[in-house]
Every structure is written in C-alpha cells, then in structure tokens.
C-alpha cells in the first residue's frame, strides 16, 4: 500500500528509515496537513537542488514588514564573492527580489511602498536606467504577468539577479527564489546561459509549489 500511496503523491518517504509523512496531494485535503509541515525547511531543500543545477549563488526570501527578508542561501562552488546573507533585507524598489513581492501586493501594502517613493535616498534604477514611479508600476505589471524579475547592478555593477515567485494559497507570494551571478557567467535576459538559469528557476518553482501543496482558500 505504501508503494502505491507514494506513487500517487499521497505519502512521501522521510530520510529516517521506516518513517513517512503526507505527500503533496494529501496536502490538498485540508488545513491540518498544511500545518504539519515546515514550509521554510522544504523551500530551503529545493534551494539546494536549484544550487546544484546552476552552480550559482541562490537565495530564498519571504516578505516581512515591507521588505524582502533572506531566509536561506546556498553559495556557488566557485571562488567568487557575492555578499547576500541570511537575515539581509532587500528593498521592494531597488532589488529584483523585492520588486517581485511588490508586484503581488494588495492595494494597502502597495500604497505604503508608493508613498515612500518620492523620499527614497537615491533615484531608483532598473537595469542601469533611472526610472520614475510610472515606469516602476509598469515594471511591476510586467513582472506580475511573467512571474519573473530581472535585475542588473543591484548588488554589484556587474552582477545579474533573476527571481521567480512561489505563490501562497491565497494568491500572494509566499517565497521568492533568486539566482545571482556575474553578468559574464549568466548573461542578461536573452542568451543561452540566461535561458538555462530561467529554465532551472521555473522548474524549481513548479516543484516547490507541488511540494508545498496548492489549494484554494474556502
């Protein structure tokens, strides 16, 4: 019976011998199953898988008090230094990760972001180009449509970041997965290296969404 249940996704085998838990399909049965899992731990496990696929620095963020908060990180195996630390906060204006969260905020939260736009310490930029509030909103609309956010020069002048959302059960962004690397390694938006990163990101997005269990709020 266990073999069949594992095959259908109702049960998953744990790392400890002889132990099992509810699988992704069982999570759709109700709130009780949702509450039994540590969602950040599961998301960080997928972060490790993504890191092994792309061998670039990857990190996991949640939305916390108006900013993106880094809660997981896996570094590239190559001897490079890209300083993104667990516990670091990222702006919803200045970072690709933050903009992805902002693209799915409700009206009240979005108003908080926009109210502070005119008093920002420096002119916001998008991929090296200064943008105003209207262009910022256009970018958020594009991000919401594609579920993909791209940044250039936000951590260092030659560093590219690419992000995808993991949607929560109520249509909000629960997590954001981000890959960062040097432009010479992962390129911009339209080349072979960049497409490989994007493909891996969207695959992790799909896998993690299934693991966490998608369900519609009743």
Describe this protein's structure.
The protein has a six-stranded antiparallel beta sheet with strand order 5-4-3-10-9-8, with helices on both faces. It has helices at residues 2-8, 31-35, 39-54, 96-102, 107-115, 133-146, 183-186, 192-212; strands at residues 11-13, 20-22, 57-64, 67-74, 89-90, 125-126, 129-130, 149-152, 159-167, 173-182. The protein is globular, with a radius of gyration of 18 Å. A hairpin with a 2-residue loop joins β3 (57-64) and β4. The chain contains eight helices and ten strands. Helix content is 38%, strand content 23%. By secondary structure, the chain is an alpha+beta fold. α3 packs antiparallel against α8 (192-212).
How would you summarize this macromolecular structure in one to three sentences?
With 218 residues, this protein is an alpha+beta fold. Helix content is 38%, strand content 23%.
List keywords for this structure.
8 helices; disordered C terminus; two-stranded antiparallel sheet; 218 residues; alpha+beta; single chain
Distance between the termini: 31 Å
Gyration radius, in Å: 18 Å
Q: From the structure provided, what is the oligomeric state, counting identical versus distinct chains?
A: single chain
Tally of separate helices: 8
Model regions low in confidence, pLDDT < 50 over at least 5 residues? 214-218
User: Major sheet: size, sense and barrel closure?
Assistant: 6 strands, antiparallel
Strand adjacency order, main sheet: 5-4-3-10-9-8
The proportion of residues in beta strands is 15-25%
> What best-fitting shape do the alpha-carbon axes yield?
globular
Alpha-beta classification: alpha+beta
- How do the helices and strands follow one another from N- to C-terminus? HEEHHEEEHHEEHEEEHH
Give the tally of β-strands: 10
Please give the share of residues in helix.
25-40%
Overall average residue pLDDT: 85
């Amino acid at each position: 019976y266990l073999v069949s249940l594992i095959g259908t996704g109702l049960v998953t085998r744990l790392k400890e011998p002889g132990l099992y838990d509810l699988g992704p399909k069982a999570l759709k049965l109700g709130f009780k199953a949702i509450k039994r899992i540590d969602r950040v731990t599961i998301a960080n496990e997928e972060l490790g898988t993504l890191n092994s696929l792309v061998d670039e620095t990857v990190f996991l963020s949640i939305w916390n008090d108006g900013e993106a908060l880094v809660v997981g990180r896996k570094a590239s195996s190559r001897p490079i230094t890209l300083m993104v630390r667990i516990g670091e906060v990222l702006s919803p204006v200045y970072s690709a990760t933050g903009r992805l969260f902002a693209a799915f905020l409700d009206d009240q939260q979005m108003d908080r972001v926009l109210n502070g736009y005119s008093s920002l310490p420096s002119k916001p930029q998008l991929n090296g180009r200064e943008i105003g509030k209207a262009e910022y909103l256009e970018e958020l609309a594009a991000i919401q449509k594609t579920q993909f956010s791209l940044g250039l020069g936000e951590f260092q002048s030659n560093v590219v970041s690419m992000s995808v959302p993991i949607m929560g059960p109520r249509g909000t962004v629960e997590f954001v997965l981000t890959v960062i690397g040097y432009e010479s390694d992962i390129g911009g938006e339209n080349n072979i290296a960049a497409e490989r990163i994007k493909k891996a990101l969207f695959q992790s997005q799909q896998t993690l969404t299934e693991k966490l269990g998608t369900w519609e709020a009743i």
